[in-house]
């Protein structure tokens, strides 16, 4: 049976983005697939009083079971309230690839969905996005669209090269589809290998010129930055020290993120940094405690470190204290 996100204690992104766009900060959008990640995200955002967008990808839905996830989210909202916090919490479908998937998530209680038609020809992207917007808006659910393709793997599409967003398209796309926010491609990519650089080499700067041009054509319109993990060296080092092999991993430098959140970028997507923290802490624990076999013993410290990382991330996005 269909449920409205409003009955689950969630909010859509309208007010979150209206405040972020004028407040010089971005709302964090953190992906999760399991209980420990969800606990870390919520307790971190409660502690630093940050609004938050919980993100579930199609893959996460398959991994964790869509019904179980659907029931975990109101549990997370209740936990935040029990901790005495009123932080706004939104639930987003990350990289929805079809009308049917977006509809299913809306009917399951998601408060916002992304329809990623960026790999389609322009007119196909407009048509698909518009169809999702019509269904979503009738239920007061907000929609994120995408123009331009990030290099690397975008869940269902894989691209060798970046196709930067064409600023000349953004106004037409937003007007014709009615989307509430727009993901653009300015040089980031998904995963832990964002730039082809050797150790010690600096990564190329993001294309702020494209972002500025989009802002000029869409004043005060919420822009979304995907692929925004910094791939923190601290955790890559721990992974490699304890048996991992992640050579030449690289992410978006923190100063670039700090600069981006002062613009109309009001949602920043982080998944890989969370994965790296968990992997690093579990590897370390396993190496140092070879006799342990209780998952709580290694997942607990990983969850603690994850929470610290999310608090630091909220500070970077300047979303702390904005709930
Ligand atoms: O954009 C991709 C997100 O990091 C989700 O990744 O499809 O492996 O869950 P996933
Ligand atoms: P990262 O891989 O940089 O964390 O990006 C995540 C993302 O964009 C999810 O949509
Ligand atoms: Zn993404």
Count of alpha and pi helical runs: 12
Ligand types: glyceraldehyde-3-phosphate, 1,3-dihydroxyacetonephosphate, zinc ion
CATH level-four homologous superfamily name: Aldolase class I
Would you tell me the overall average pLDDT?
A: 96
> From the 3D coordinates, which CATH architecture would you assign?
Alpha-Beta Barrel
How many domains, in number, for the residues?
1
What summary fits the major beta sheet?
Answer: 8 strands, parallel, barrel
Structural class: alpha/beta
Distance between the termini: 31 Å
- Estimated share of beta-strand residues: 5-15%
Order of helices and strands: HEHEHHEHEHEEEHEHEHHEHH
Q: What's the CATH C level?
A: Alpha Beta
Note poorly predicted spans. none
Write down the CATH topology.
TIM Barrel
Report the principal-axis shape.
Answer: globular
Query: Which percent bin holds the helix content?
Result: 40-55%
Number-wise, the strands total: 10
Gyration radius from CA atoms, angstroms: 19 Å
Strand line-up across the major sheet = 1-2-3-4-5-8-9-10
Architecture overview:
The structure is a single chain. By secondary structure, the protein is of the alpha/beta class. The protein has a single domain (5-317), classed as Aldolase class I (TIM Barrel, Alpha-Beta Barrel). It is built from 12 helices and 10 strands. It has helices at 14-23, 35-47, 58-64, 66-82, 99-108, 122-137, 167-177, 208-217, 233-241, 254-260, 272-288, 295-317, and strands at 27-31, 52-57, 89-96, 112-115, 142-147, 152-154, 157-159, 181-184, 223-225, 265-270. The chain has an 8-stranded parallel beta barrel, surrounded by 8 helices. Strands 6-7 form a two-stranded antiparallel sheet. α5 (99-108) runs parallel beside α6 (122-137) and α11 packs antiparallel against α12 (295-317). It binds glyceraldehyde-3-phosphate, 1,3-dihydroxyacetonephosphate (13P) and zinc ion. Zinc ion binds at residues 95, 190, 226-227, 269.
């Amino acid at each position: 049976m269909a449920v409205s996100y409003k009955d689950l204690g969630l909010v859509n992104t309208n007010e979150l983005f209206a405040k972020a766009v004028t407040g010089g900060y971005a709302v964090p959008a953190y992906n999760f697939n399991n209980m420990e990640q969800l606990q870390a995200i919520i307790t971190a955002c409660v502690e630093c009083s940050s609004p938050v967008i919980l993100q579930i990808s199609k893959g996460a839905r398959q991994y964790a079971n869509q019904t179980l996830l659907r029931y975990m989210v109101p549990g997370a909202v209740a936990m935040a309230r029990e901790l005495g916090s009123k932080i706004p919490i939104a639930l987003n479908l990350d990289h929805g690839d079809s009308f049917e998937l977006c509809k299913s998530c809306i009917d399951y209680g998601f408060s916002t969905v992304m329809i990623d038609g960026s790999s389609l020809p322009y007119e196909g992207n407009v048509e698909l996005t518009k169809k999702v917007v019509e269904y979503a808006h009738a239920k007061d659910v907000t929609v994120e669209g995408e123009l331009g393709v990030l290099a690397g793997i975008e869940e269902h599409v894989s691209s060798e090269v970046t196709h930067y967003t064409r600023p000349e398209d953004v106004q037409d796309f937003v007007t014709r589809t009615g989307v509430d926010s727009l993901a653009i491609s300015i040089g980031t990519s998904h995963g832990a290998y964002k730039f082809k650089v050797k150790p010690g080499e600096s990564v190329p700067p993001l294309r702020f010129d494209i972002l500025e041009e989009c802002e000029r054509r869409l004043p005060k319109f919420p822009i979304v930055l995907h692929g925004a993990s910094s791939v923190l060296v601290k955790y890559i080092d721990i992974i490699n020290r304890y048996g991992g092999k992640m050579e030449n991993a690289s992410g978006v430098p923190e100063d670039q993120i700090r600069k981006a959140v002062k613009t109309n970028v009001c949602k920043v997507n982080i998944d890989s940094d969370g994965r790296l923290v968990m992997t690093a802490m579990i590897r370390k624990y396993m190496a140092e405690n070879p006799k342990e076999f209780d998952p709580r013993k290694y997942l607990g410290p990983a969850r603690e470190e994850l929470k610290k990382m999310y608090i630091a991330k909220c500070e970077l996005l300047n979303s702390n204290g904005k709930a």
